[in-house]
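In this section we walk through a basic example: taking a raw amino acid sequence and producing a predicted 3D structure, encoded as discrete structure tokens. The instruction is simple. Fold the sequence below.
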Amino acid sequence: MSDNTEQFRWIVVIKENLEILFANDPNVFVAGDLLWYPIEENNKIRQAPDVMVAFGRQKGKRGSYRQWQEDNIPPQVVFEILSPGNTVKEMSRKLLFYQRHGVEEYYIYDPEEVELTGLISSENRLEEIEEMNGWISPRLGIRFELTSDTLEILRPDGQRFLTSVELDGLREQERQRAEDAIAQLEAERQRYQALIERLREKGIDPEQL
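The resulting token sequence is shown next.
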């Protein structure tokens, strides 16, 4: 579980925006803080990535991600959001777990330091990506951009990952624009009807024009 509000905010932003990005693909499963068991015979070998994405697996409810029940497909992409409570030993253990069990892309973000680390699988090892600013995820198609004070994640269409509040603000703007368009059409209809009435008062039948 998250240790603080900033860590939780980033987990939610990444998880929910990935859900939106792959909403129309029934075979992309996205989850947050879900236990992943890679080996059937050993329930002590497990990890719960802050966010994970499994391509080739159907969406749906799960109590955990039991790999042997998922056509033995591991999550290909995982994210970890750092908090002050994370230790070097803990993160090293996670790295070895993800490397051993088939993760292709591993992203670690430290919101306090605005530092993003990315690793990509090469010959069964997770190798660090030299430059993350501008990096495009091969699996997800998203682009990472680092500024002096935050990380921005951009969808393939260039739209920025947004918080739920920002998404609701956009929805409200669209609703207001729709209402304004309807009001404008109604005003035009009323002006047109008034013109028809004035013509009829003058003995002119608009339908005969």
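Looking at the output, two observations stand out. The chain has two domains: 5-161, 165-208. The chain has three helices and ten strands. In the next section we compare this with other chains.
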